[in-house]
């Protein structure tokens, strides 16, 4: 099993993600620069957080046009698990691998704080070890994290069970407190909060186990596959 | 142009010819107070700068501490006051950028940022509020984009900063000892300039910062681009790993002039460069503008011909510019050419070493006129006073500020911002604790003891997390040093800091002096800011007190209300006795607290400082969501003092501990044996904070009201004020 962590100019959670994948969960992990192509033997792709291209124009929009995105799309279409966290989620939305849009938080400020997520869909490669309704203590850190879907999209998301995580409380004004979604097939997941910042006891002031289950879910997914 | 008469004489004597326009501009920049430390340099030597953990190398802009197992921590502190007072968003942002590059130039990766922010009274001054909001956004915009967590700092408001701003930034780096850049250069080595392009921003910035702030000189202010800085960090670290860097220096104040002359001087080499080879943002820049522009996000690197191709390839990968601008020569000259024409040629040492000054000092008259304590207005309800203090801008939670900073990125942040010191985990399984502290109210009344107090407070905060202080950085901020009264306050501060650093054997590993912090309405209060680093094997992860736990105070409370928030915010009174650190007690108390933590006899330790005992206790209850019933008569004191002083005095060396009842006897025995002054003040329980004096409750308020005041006050003021 081989997990790719994609690095764009301005990514800044790539090393954190790499650390958690390799040192905490023993994944075989490899960095890929945005100009690389992803080989076919990749079993999962993670787009980490950060400020790709300094958030110029709009968060994630320039990265969504990077050369590597065409291989990400190819893998996504073949059912490979893809996870976008924070800026990675913004990139997935901008590259139309996920629907909807991410707007500025209603506070109009960058917000870094611990929140609680509620699991809505445990039928994705990243949530299959979690329970529906389970609470995940996890930090957010973003300025443009307010997920917005219009009525039509929202009913589609609901009908297809595409809402993966929602915030327990109103955090940033996102539609129905949505924090993470997946594509129709469920293999592409995007979330604004940072699971890699919550999966170790020493840095998680509440409980690191729920967030760990996101990574353990991927282990299970890849284990089944192999 | 700011060369002074004695400097012109010095030039005549050493150089013996008329200087070119470019040479004059180079000297004016490099010999500015900001770059040359000409007023302070001869005095800074008194600080102890060596110690068993201190690593000293040529040409470092940051202090380096060995933290064991082959790892080092680097640290630096700077301010960006003048620019932030004119353009707070850009000024504060570029302030972050400059310090980060100092950390990077040692070859270490920046892992944390701290900010000390000071403005006028935001309760009634809209301009101060604007400066504050925008400085915070500027720091957030810059630090967040870099992916370096901003994990602590301070915010303070005082009338002395009206129409002005102090933006201090400290940064910490971490890396392997073997990756430190050992600055060296040989004749024929290549000098390259990496990063942002040189433009007309920041022209004369260091001279601008070396005079009192009277005009809005916008061209002297730099423009931030954190994205370029992020690319530079990654490119430099990759180049470091590939061994492409022989020597490196950040471009800050004084731009190329300063970086070239100081690098040449510290390495004992000459550098010849051509301004035509510098990549610029616009055409038509004059050669002298290229030499003194303070455009941001630039690094000077010395490499050799063999490594140059690899270095260029790395820069290409990150799409940052890398221009070969010159080479290393033998003659120890700084030689600047414009095409074929020589436009400046001066000995590097001559440029880098401005003639130093031994300024006059005299004790300020205001100190004699400071009022002694007078009969204060009668307080009818102490609960109201405590709640008022809890919601005052200087004491209320700064959650609104640090929420805007990414303080989690890097996944090292064990103790998050908002309480005492912040704690980071390091790769060698050790933990680093860091804190910055300043207190202009104390320093104004007593510059020497005020400065020592800031230092002790930072140490106390480190101790509260279980760490042993191993190094300090100081940032000394004052008004115009040409005024002997101001210079006296500077000398008092530095002497005090030296005395305490020597006593505790904590080396000063870096620092900065910033003078001319004044506007037409006057100088700022003396504002030394002290940063302290500590290291430990295991941090105290504080547990909230639960019902039945004891509240214990360590340290003596004295009649020291001078400069307190109580005097200044409640009574609008400046004067009285400034808290004085008793060195011996300070040390015993620190060691005792560390020992109690190590032996797991305490659940949490909180520093007692701004606002005094009543505020420190309220904070514990607010964070622990539990009430406390306290007998003030048990607070140790040798002075004959009233309970008002017990509540609000800001005496140093005091700690509040919460202790499980099963440990209270052992704790008592230990502290008695060590002859530490302590008192068991009461127990945690219920939802009220209650304080008794002579068996009578003099103050009683609910934890939930205190919480509301403490957490909402600043945000309410900014949103609706």
Shape of chain B: globular
CATH superfamily of the domain at 364-396 and 542-721 in chain B: PurM-like C-terminal domain
**CATH topology term of chain A:** Rossmann fold
- Unreliable residue runs of chain A: none
CATH class of the domain at 364-396 and 542-721 in chain B: Alpha Beta
Helix and strand succession of chain A?
EHEEHEHEEEEHEEEH
Of all chain pairs, the largest interface belongs to: A-B, 31 and 30 residues
Overall number of strands of chain B: 28
Number of domains of chain A: 1
Distance, first to last CA of chain A: 7 Å
Q: Supply the helix-strand structural class of chain A.
A: alpha/beta
Mean pLDDT of chain B, nearest integer? Answer: 94
Q: In CATH's first tier, which class of chain A applies?
A: Alpha Beta
Task: Jot down its keywords.
heterodimer, A: alpha/beta, Rossmann fold, nine-stranded mixed β-sheet, two-stranded antiparallel ribbon, 25% helix, B: 721 residues, alpha+beta, Phosphoribosyl-aminoimidazole Synthetase, Chain A, domain 2, seven-stranded mixed β-sheet, 28 strands, globular
What can you tell me about this protein's structure?
- The complex is a heterodimer of chains A (226) and B (721).
- Chain A has five helices and eleven strands.
- Chain A has a single domain, classed as Rossmann fold (3-Layer(aba) Sandwich).
- The N and C termini of chain A lie close together (7 Å).
- In chain B, a hairpin with a 5-residue loop joins strand 15 and strand 16.
- With 721 residues, chain B is of the alpha+beta class.
- Among the domains of chain B are: 205 residues, PurM-like C-terminal domain (Phosphoribosyl-aminoimidazole Synthetase, Chain A, domain 2); 213 residues, Phosphoribosyl-aminoimidazole Synthetase, Chain A, domain 2, CATH 3.90.650.
- At the A-B interface, helix 1 and strand 6 of A face helix 7 and helix 9 of B.
């Amino acid at each position: 099993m081989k997990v790719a962590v994609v690095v764009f100019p301005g990514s800044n959670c790539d090393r954190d993600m790499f650390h958690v994948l390799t040192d905490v969960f023993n994944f075989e992990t490899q960095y890929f620069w945005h100009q690389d192509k992803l080989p076919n033997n990749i079993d999962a792709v993670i787009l980490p957080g950060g400020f790709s291209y300094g958030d110029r124009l709009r968060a994630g929009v320039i990265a969504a046009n990077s050369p590597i995105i065409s291989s990400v799309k190819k893998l996504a279409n073949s059912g490979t698990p893809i996870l976008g966290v924070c800026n990675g989620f913004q990139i997935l939305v901008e590259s139309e691998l996920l629907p909807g849009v991410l707007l500025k938080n209603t506070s109009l400020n960058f917000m870094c704080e611990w929140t609680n997520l509620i699991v809505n869909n445990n039928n994705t490669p990243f949530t299959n070890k979690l329970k529906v309704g389970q609470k995940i203590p996890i930090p957010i850190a973003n300025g443009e994290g307010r997920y917005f879907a219009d009525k039509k999209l929202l009913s589609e998301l609901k009908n297809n069970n595409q809402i993966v995580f929602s915030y327990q409380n109103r955090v940033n004004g996102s539609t129905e407190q949505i924090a993470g979604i997946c594509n129709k097939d469920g293999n592409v997941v995007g979330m604004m909060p940072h699971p890699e910042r919550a999966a170790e006891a020493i840095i998680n002031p509440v409980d690191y186990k729920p967030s760990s289950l996101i990574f353990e879910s991927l282990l299970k997914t890849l284990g089944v596959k192999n | 142009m700011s060369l002074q008469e004695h400097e012109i004489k010095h030039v005549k004597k050493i150089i013996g010819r008329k200087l070119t326009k470019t040479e004059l501009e180079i000297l004016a920049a490099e010999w500015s107070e900001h770059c040359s430390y000409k007023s302070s340099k001869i005095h800074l030597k008194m600080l102890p700068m060596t110690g068993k953990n201190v690593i000293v190398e040529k040409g470092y802009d940051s202090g380096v501490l060995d933290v064991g197992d082959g790892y080092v921590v680097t640290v630096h502190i700077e301010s960006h006051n003048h620019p932030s007072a004119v353009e707070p968003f850009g000024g504060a942002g570029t302030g972050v950028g400059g310090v980060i590059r100092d950390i990077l130039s040692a070859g270490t990766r920046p892992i944390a940022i701290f900010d000390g922010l000071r403005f006028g009274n935001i309760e009634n001054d809209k301009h101060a509020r604007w400066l504050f909001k925008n400085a915070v956004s500027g720091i957030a915009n810059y630090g967040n984009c870099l992916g370096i967590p901003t994990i602590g700092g301070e915010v303070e408001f005082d009338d002395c900063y009206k129409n002005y701003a102090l933006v201090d930034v400290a940064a910490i780096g971490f890396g392997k000892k073997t990756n430190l850049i050992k600055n060296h250069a040989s004749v024929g080595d290549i000098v390259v300039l990496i990063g942002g392009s040189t433009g007309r921003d920041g022209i004369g910035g260091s001279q601008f910062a070396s005079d009192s702030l009277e005009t809005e000189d916008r061209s002297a202010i730099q423009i931030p681009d954190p994205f370029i800085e992020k690319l530079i960090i990654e490119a430099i670290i990759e180049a470091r790993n590939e061994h492409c860097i022989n020597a490196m220096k950040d471009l800050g104040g004084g731009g190329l002039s300063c970086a070239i002359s100081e690098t040449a001087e510290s390495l004992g080499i000459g550098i010849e460069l051509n301004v035509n080879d510098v990549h610029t943002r616009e055409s038509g820049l004059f050669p002298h503008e290229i030499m003194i522009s303070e455009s941001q996000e630039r690094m000077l690197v010395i490499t050799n011909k063999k490594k140059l191709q690899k270095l260029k390839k790395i820069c290409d990968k990150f799409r940052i510019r890398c221009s070969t601008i010159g080479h290393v020569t033998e003659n120890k000259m700084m030689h600047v050419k414009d095409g074929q024409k020589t436009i400046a040629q001066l000995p590097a040492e001559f440029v880098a070493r401005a003639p130093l000054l031994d300024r006059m000092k005299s004790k300020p008259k205001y100190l004699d006129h400071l009022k002694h304590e007078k009969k204060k207005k009668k307080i009818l309800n102490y609960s109201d006073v405590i709640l008022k203090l809890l919601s005052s801008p200087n004491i209320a939670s700064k959650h609104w500020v640090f929420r805007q900073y990414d303080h989690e990125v890097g996944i090292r942040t064990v103790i998050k911002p908002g309480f005492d010191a912040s704690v980071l985990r390091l790769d060698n399984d050790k933990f680093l604790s860091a804190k910055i502290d300043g207190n202009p109210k104390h320093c104004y009344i007593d510059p020497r003891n005020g400065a020592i107090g800031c230092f002790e407070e930072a140490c106390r905060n480190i101790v509260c997390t279980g760490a042993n202080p191993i190094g300090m950085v100081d940032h000394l901020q004052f008004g115009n040093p040409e005024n002997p009264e101001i210079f006296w306050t500077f000398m008092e501060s530095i002497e005090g800091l030296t005395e305490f650093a020597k006593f505790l054997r904590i080396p000063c590993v870096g620092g900065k002096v910033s003078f001319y912090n004044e506007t037409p309405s006057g100088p700022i209060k003396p504002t030394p800011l002290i940063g302290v680093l500590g290291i430990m094997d295991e941090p105290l992860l504080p547990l909230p007190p639960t019902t039945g736990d004891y509240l214990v105070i360590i340290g003596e409370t004295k009649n020291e209300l001078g400069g307190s928030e109580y005097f200044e915010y409640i009574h609008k009174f400046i004067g009285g006795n400034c808290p004085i650190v008793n060195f011996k007690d300070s040390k015993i108390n620190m060691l005792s607290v560390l020992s109690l933590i190590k032996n797991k006899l305490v659940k949490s330790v909180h520093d007692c400082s701004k606002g005094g005992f009543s505020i420190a206790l309220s904070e514990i209850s607010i964070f622990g969501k539990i009430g406390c019933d306290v007998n003030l008569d048990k607070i140790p004191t040798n002075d004959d003092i009233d309970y008002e002083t017990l509540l609000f005095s800001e005496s140093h060396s005091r700690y509040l501990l919460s202790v499980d009842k099963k440990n209270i006897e052992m704790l008592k025995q230990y502290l008695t044996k060590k002859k530490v002054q302590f008192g068991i003040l009461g127990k945690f329980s219920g939802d009220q904070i209650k304080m008794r004096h002579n068996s009578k409750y003099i103050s009683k308020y609910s934890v939930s009201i205190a919480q509301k005041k403490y957490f909402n006050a600043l945000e309410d003021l900014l949103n609706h004020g």
